[in-house]
Each structure stands twice: as structure tokens, then as C-alpha cells.
């Protein structure tokens, strides 16, 4: 439950957003076995809490990669119309997944034209190990966003599960700020993706990105709740 202070702040912001035009927040994600998809869905749910935000979730699909090249004109057009782009994929061999890398390389055209310049950006990843070298993924995504001229948004939550009373269900239990990190047990299906805390962190990150997009595009007053 949000604190009364947060609720009050939201009520004020809602009034302002009512006068502002909408924003488009799109998350493009790749998932092999569905765990990353669950994270993406919770992130989108959080973004949808923000009035005026039209939220799209698009899957970057292996079927759209031919001879190492990804192409989906519809997805690229949607990203071109978006105010914020949130990028996500599983950590595979300590890196972004191959399919997602093919998608990133397909952004060479908006790179050359800088058509995505000053959109907002964020990123997330899922892996099996607690670390699993997954920091490499938000680093790769943030560099990608920088090359495209986008402005990167990190996670705004303090770390959880870093003290004797900590718990797997804590918010930001993996203590990641560059991007959202989650972990799923390797022997469990997508129905057990992440932890409760990871999914809440995804919702909070999605909401933060959508609010900051309102602030960026419509000059709506917003501060991330503490
Ligand atoms: C080829 C391969 C490489 C992987 N590499 C890593 C890794 O480097 N670090 C890690 O923690 N997990 C690794 N994993 C585990 C996946 O990140 C994990 O299963 C994740 O939940 C998959 O997400 P998805 O269901 O969205 O595809 C790897 C899995 C596969 C199949």
C-alpha cells in the first residue's frame, strides 16, 4: 500500500496529468522460456498506473531473425513513436541474449538518424544465478541507449535482503540500480518467475519510468517515492 504521503502526491499529479497530453511507454523484451516475459508484464502493469501513459509490450521474437538479422517494421515504427523505451532480455552466457542483440543491431538506422534521441530508456534482465554476471546486461543496454542518444532511467529503490533480517521478497533484493534485475530458479517454470519482491520492484520501476516520462514530455511534477 502506498503511504498517505505518496497517495497525496499522486492525487496532485493526477490533476496535472489530466491537462497534459498522453505519453507512449513501450517495453521491447525477449524471453526464451517465459521468465523475462513475466517481469516485463509486471513492469507494464506498473507503468499503466500512470494516467495518460499508453503502455505497449512487444516481444522481440526469434522468428524475426533471419541470417542473424532481426526485422519487424511494425515494432520499429512503434518504438519510433514512443516517448520511453524499456529494453529487457534474459542474461545468457553473461550477456544480452543473441536474439535481443540482433534487435539492438537493427537499431542501426535510428542510430544513424538519431531518431530516438532524447527518448527515455530503461532496462531489465532475468537470470538463474543470484549474480550470474547479469550486471553486464544493463551495462550493455545503457550503452546502447547512450549510442541512440536516449536518457537512461535507473531503479529508484533502496536495496533489500542485504541484512540479517532481509528476505527474498524484499523490494530490490538484488540491489541493482543501473537496471532492474530478477532471478528465477533454474528448475522452475515461468509461473514461478522471480520473487514477489522482484515483481513488485518491476511494477515500481515501470511506474517510475512512466511518471518520469510524463515529467520529461509534459513537465508534470513528480518525485519518486522514497
Ligand atoms: C544458454 C543459456 C545461458 C545462460 N547463461 C546464464 C548466465 O550467464 N547467468 C545466469 O545467471 N543464468 C544464465 N542462464 C539462465 C537464464 O538466464 C534463466 O533461465 C532465465 O530465467 C531465462 O529467462 P527466460 O525464461 O525469459 O528465457 C542461461 C541459460 C541458458 C539457456
UniProtKB/TrEMBL annotation:
Pfam families: FMN_red. Coiled coil: none annotated. GO terms for molecular function: FMN binding; NAD(P)H dehydrogenase (quinone) activity. Residues 25-182 form the Flavodoxin-like domain. GO terms for cellular component: membrane. It comes from the Bacteria. InterPro entries: Flavodoxin/NO_synth (IPR008254), Flavoprotein-like_sf (IPR029039), FMN_Rdtase-like_dom (IPR005025). SUPFAM superfamilies: Flavoproteins (SSF52218). This is FMN reductase.
